[in-house]
Amino acid sequence: MDHFADRLRAAPQSRLQRGAAAEALGLARELALRAQRLEDPEQAPREMPDAGMFASADQITVAVHDLALVLRTEEELAEALVLVEEAQKRAGV
Q1: What's this model's pTM, rounded to 2 decimal places?
Q2: pLDDT at 69
Q3: Residues 6+ apart with CB under 8 A from 83
Q4: Model confidence over 7-20: pLDDT tens digits?
Q5: Would you kindly state where each structural domain of the chain is located, as residue ranges?
Q6: SS3 state at 73
Q7: What is the pLDDT of residues 41-75, one digit of tens each?
Q8: What domain of life does the UniProt record list for this protein's source (predicted)?
Q9: How far is CA 27 from CA 61, 67, 70, 91, in A?
Q10: Cα separation of 13 and 35, whole Å?
Q11: CB–CB of 24/60 below 8 Å?
């Protein structure tokens, strides 16, 4: 995941605008949603806001670290890793 975030930080603005930032935001939102559901399934999840394309790397970093704190099984970890890998491929970075 850190590799993906680093690639986003190094990406030119044009690549971010062509969808890499949107892909990263989508990943961050999904990871944050999973973390919230694991941490407090009774609470309605909150959506991570769009902080702009230059914040997308930081948003996925925060979301994945939050998720890592509440993961309980190897299966949950494997699912999260697949999400990150797929998002990085779609983002093209």
Answers
A1: 0.92
A2: 95
A3: 27, 30, 31
A4: 999 999 999 999 99
A5: 1-91
A6: coil
A7: 999 999 999 999 999 999 999 999 999 999 999 99
A8: Bacteria
A9: 10, 12, 17, 10
A10: 29
A11: yes
